[in-house]
């Protein structure tokens, strides 16, 4: 396991041109991440999880565990309903996963009691595995305030949370109402140093799937107590990556291809970048990693 846990990579999922899961390509991508950030989040939003069936999610989890081991892999088990989330959780745990993340139920609205039931059922199925909640109101349709989340975390024995979308800039508010040992990650790649300053553990960075180097360099410098000038220079590199790759699986996959990695195609509505953007991504990769 990589010693660093400040940057976790939610991996893209490679598919063949006809839309089938490409496990050969996935193995190479997983190895690249195991050798860089050393932290793999499987079947998250960047990984197009809504387009994956139960068998495929288990296959990807098994592959991540084989490549990186249980300390390096976090399996996403969230689903629109508790029944499916419990089944996914059991699959992941039986495969050997010890760290899980579950998006809130989505599509239909859920009241506080329904959220409690969902997370309690997933928690029970998780056994001894750590369970992280995944809050993304813009995609799930469900907003969980810091105060409500603090109740859910205590009642459902949650170990941590990933804050995405609008909550990704509210680390301090969630951190303030949670126990000191609780782990808070942000999905906002650009705010790594701010997240750490506000008591967060780091970022779950989609952009690090293709260009992990700037994020790892900034994280290491921040943890080591680097000065403001050095941090500003490193932040500029991170900002450039985030501005160009952004929350776009298509752009991340293009950057992977430029690096010579097998990004594969997509199942969901993920288009390739247009020519000008593609050229900018190619220059970015050349500038940052040669």
UniProtKB/TrEMBL annotation:
Transmembrane segments: none annotated. The keyword Cell division does not apply. InterPro entries: Aldolase_TIM, DapA-like. It comes from the Bacteria. CDD domains: DHDPS-like (cd00408). Keywords: Lyase. Belongs to the DapA family. PANTHER family: 4-HYDROXY-2-OXOGLUTARATE ALDOLASE, MITOCHONDRIAL, DIHYDRODIPICOLINATE SYNTHASE. This is 4-hydroxy-tetrahydrodipicolinate synthase. It comes from Streptomyces rhizosphaericus.
């Amino acid at each position: 396991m990589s010693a660093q846990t400040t940057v976790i990579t939610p991996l893209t999922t490679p598919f063949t041109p006809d839309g089938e899961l490409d496990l050969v390509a996935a193995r190479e991508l997983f190895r690249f991440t195991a050798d860089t950030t050393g932290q793999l989040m499987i079947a998250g939003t960047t990984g197009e999880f809504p387009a994956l069936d139960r068998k495929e999610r288990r296959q990807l989890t098994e592959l991540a565990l084989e490549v990186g081991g249980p300390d390096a892999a976090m399996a996403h088990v969230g689903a629109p309903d508790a029944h499916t989330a419990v089944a996914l959780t059991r699959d992941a745990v039986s495969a050997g996963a010890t760290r899980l993340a579950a998006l809130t139920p989505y599509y239909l609205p859920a009241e506080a009691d329904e959220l409690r039931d969902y997370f309690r059922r997933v928690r029970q199925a998780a056994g001894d595995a750590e369970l992280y909640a995944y809050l993304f109101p813009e995609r799930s349709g469900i907003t969980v305030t810091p105060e409500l989340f603090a109740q859910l975390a205590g009642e459902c024995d949650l170990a941590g949370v990933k804050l995405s979308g609008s909550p990704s800039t509210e680390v301090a508010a969630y951190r303030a109402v949670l126990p000191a040992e609780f782990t808070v990650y942000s999905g906002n790649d650009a705010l790594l140093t701010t997240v750490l300053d506000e008591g967060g553990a780091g970022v779950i960075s989609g952009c690090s799937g293709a260009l992990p180097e700037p994020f790892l360099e900034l994280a290491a410098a921040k943890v080591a107590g680097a000065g403001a000038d050095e941090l500003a220079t490193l932040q500029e590199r991170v900002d450039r990556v985030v501005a160009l790759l952004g929350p776009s699986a298509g752009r991340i996959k293009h950057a992977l291809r430029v690096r010579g990695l097998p990004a594969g195609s997509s199942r969901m509505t993920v288009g390739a970048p247009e020519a000008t953007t593609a050229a900018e991504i190619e220059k970015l990769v050349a500038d940052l990693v040669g």
